[in-house]
Amino acid sequence: MKNEALAMVFSEAEKPFHPLPVDLPLLSSGEALVEITYTTICTSDLHTFYGRRGAPTPSVLGHEVIGRIASLPENGVEDFYGEHLRIGDLVTWSVYAHNHAGEMACKGIPQKSTPLFKYGHERIEQNDVLSGGFATHCHLRKGTDIFKIPEGITAREAAPLNCTHATVAGAIRLAGDLSGKNVLVIGAGMLGISACAMAQYAEAKHVFAMDLDGRRAENSKRFGANTAIDAKLSSEEILQIIQPLGGIDVVIDTSGSAAAMEKGLAILNIGGISVWVGAVYSERNISLNAETVVRRILTIKGLHNYIPEDLSYAIKFLKATHMTYPFASLVETDLPLSKLDEAFKVANESGNYRVGITPN
């Protein structure tokens, strides 16, 4: 095994990444070293790089990432299910490391633990560099939930597991049993497409996809949506489309748009649930009528990141559906790690769902 790794460091918004060679870390108990095989550029990476949201610097971005176990400590490491990991295992991992016995973990909200080590979001401290996906290796900290990737799933299909699919799995968990229910997914980007497919996997009766971009809304039909809706339509016009089919029981908003979330609430059936996962950047406040929420018995739930069980569910979902839905097609081009600047430009300007990075 090589004794050196290479990381591409983010130091300032819209400034070129700079390569940083570093020695491979010595592992402590519970840690692992992964040789990265594939990473995809998430929309949140673009928000960070182009200054649309704050982030610690310098850092190594990238969190939609998979790789092979390259090194383990003497006493070994177990995966999420308690099975011993081996050198060469192809794995994904939770986007954060946390104390499994901590207060927030015991409350069932481990993603809000203190302290929390979040991959692709940590400031570089001295020689502690390998914490993101845009590098040749990633140093997995103690408290990281690690999962083996099932055979037959390609890199393009697997890389978004620990962000996109796991987050949507969390939204499905919060929505409850979808069997026989009508689901509206707002926003037909990567999260929205995953939500359409996962709602079908959860046996929803009818899945609607709504987006301002008509092409994206229509494309969602390739991933489980039954009906595409133009988000520019008024609530009244949308109701004319959905009411003959039974209305909307569950809304999953991946857009983060205040107007879209308001529209989702306005068209929910009595007793409906709205799950918000897209509002992770600054927006205006939501206009909400409390009496409407009370009289219509509406429920609003928010989700930021996910719990490890959601990633487990996402892997089972992808294993069962990757031959049904063309997830690999959502990563429309690959570029080597050395061309990371070009890759970010392509991802930002092309409108592609994802761009892939091949570090090794």
Structure description:
The chain has helices at 43-49, 103-106, 155-158, 164-175, 190-201, 214-219, 235-242, 258-266, 290-295, 308-321, 340-350; strands at residues 4-9, 18-23, 32-40, 64-71, 90-97, 117-118, 137-140, 144-148, 182-186, 206-211, 227-230, 248-253, 268-276, 299-302, 331-336, 354-358. Helix 4 crosses helix 5 and helix 4 (164-175) packs across helix 10 (308-321). The chain folds into two domains: 4-154 and 322-358, Alpha-Beta Complex (Quinone Oxidoreductase, Chain A, domain 1); 165-302, NAD(P)-binding Rossmann-like Domain (Rossmann fold), CATH 3.40.50.720. A hairpin with an 8-residue loop joins strand 1 and strand 2. Helix content is 26%, strand content 26%. The strands form three sheets. Strands 3, 4, 5, 6, 7, 8, 15 and 16 form an eight-stranded mixed beta sheet that branches. The chain is an alpha/beta fold and 360 residues long. It is built from eleven helices and 16 strands. The protein starts with a strand and ends with a strand.
Identify the notable features of this structure and list them briefly.
360 residues; alpha/beta; Quinone Oxidoreductase, Chain A, domain 1; 8-stranded mixed sheet; 6-stranded parallel sheet
Quick overview:
The protein has helices spanning 43-49, 103-106, 155-158, 164-175, 190-201, 214-219, 235-242, 258-266, 290-295, 308-321, 340-350, and strands at residues 4-9, 18-23, 32-40, 64-71, 90-97, 117-118, 137-140, 144-148, 182-186, 206-211, 227-230, 248-253, 268-276, 299-302, 331-336, 354-358. With 360 residues, it is α/β, with parallel strands linked by helices.
